[in-house]
Amino acid sequence: xxxxxxxxxxxxxxxxxxxxxxxxxxxxxxxxxxxxxxxxxxxxxxxxxxxxxxxxxxxxxxxxxxxxxxxxxxxxxxxxxxxxxxxxxxxxxxxxxxxxxxxxxxxxxxxxxxxxxxxxxxxxxxxxxxxxxxxxxxxxxxxxxxxxxxxxxxxxxxxxxxxxxxxxxxxxxxxxxxxxxxxxxxxxxxxxxxxxxxxxxxxxxxxxxxxxxxxx
Length: 216
Fold this sequence. Notes:
alpha+beta, NADH Oxidase, two-stranded antiparallel ribbon, 9 strands, oxidoreductase activity, Nitroreductase
């Protein structure tokens, strides 16, 4: 059952879907070398909605299962501990109008985490950066370093977690560029405010935002 909306977050006009089964990845992008050369941060987005197929492809490239037998994912992780979870706040995604969703790599789907219209609140927590408001979707990286510490020492847990966030973000950059979409990474935001909005538990923290959407 999803958590209730945070204080000050407007309720959804209609009940958002509890589960969104994402389309299968289409593997239709540009060659890798061209994508690397073309990769740039984009901060201006068009009002055209981001398609669910494109969002699906981006999330699969970020953390999708690439080896079902062993549970391996698209981005490397220290000891396969996977301390980074991805949450999606759809500003302007076709068929998704409200709520914050958690991406589940197993099953390749989005699960409603919190109902409510979070666009204004996340924009404010991101220090009012307008591209956070105008992007098609905001992908929030939620870190739980304790997953790494259970297998390795605590001293390296945060470092390994942040390195993984970088791997995931680079995959998002390359996939979005390959699809002709805009993408931008955001490190300037209030982690405390984001944590309150998401209702994160002790030891969890938002460490990164990635924006995706159609270029203006």
